[in-house]
Amino acid sequence: MATVADVWSRMFAQGMEQAAEAARGGDSSTRLRGFANEDILFYVKRHDNRSVVRAADPAARGRCWKLIGSVVGAAVLLIGVLLPSAYGLMAGYQIESLRREGQRLVTDQSSLELREAQLLSPQRIQELARQQQFVDPAPAKVLYLDGAQSALAMNGK
């Protein structure tokens, strides 16, 4: 099977070679080797398709909507399949964050209990009393309240 280039060279190449040799004066010593495919001519024709109107296809609209619906359905199905695992992953992160927060709160509570024990120690209270010049009341001035009496405590003379 012949290509376009073969047909072109069979039809026109011999005539072109004879014309080129005649133009050179018939001297074969100055003849140059030809370029590859120099005998092929490409003609580009400009097309103006602005006035062409596409033919209406009534079935194309239905096919497009079916394609859109199937893509949306596939996306919803994919999201539905992947959502539980993503939710589990997020819940795992939240659980780990709550564990760290609980551990931090336990550490804070123990440090606060230690600080409270230091502040309420008898040695510190005695030192504060000495600094503020508190004195113990005389034993005669101490009033002991009974839970049996319903009277209010009053200052005694």
Protein architecture, described:
The structure is a single chain. This protein is mainly α and 157 residues long. Among the domains are: 1-50, no CATH class; 78-132. Helix content is 59%, strand content 0%. The protein is built from three helices and no strands. It has helices at residues 4-24, 58-119, 122-131. The relative contact order is 0.03.
What average pLDDT do the residues reach?
84
User: What is the N-to-C order of secondary-structure elements (H for helix, E for strand)?
Assistant: HHH
Poorly predicted runs: none
**Termini distance?**
138 Å
Largest beta-sheet details: none
- State the share of residues found in helices, binned by percent: 55-70%
Would you report the number of β strands?
0
How would you classify the helix and strand content by structural class? mainly alpha
Radius of gyration: 53 Å
Task: Work out the helix count.
Answer: 3
Q: What is the strand content? A: under 5%
Overall geometry: elongated
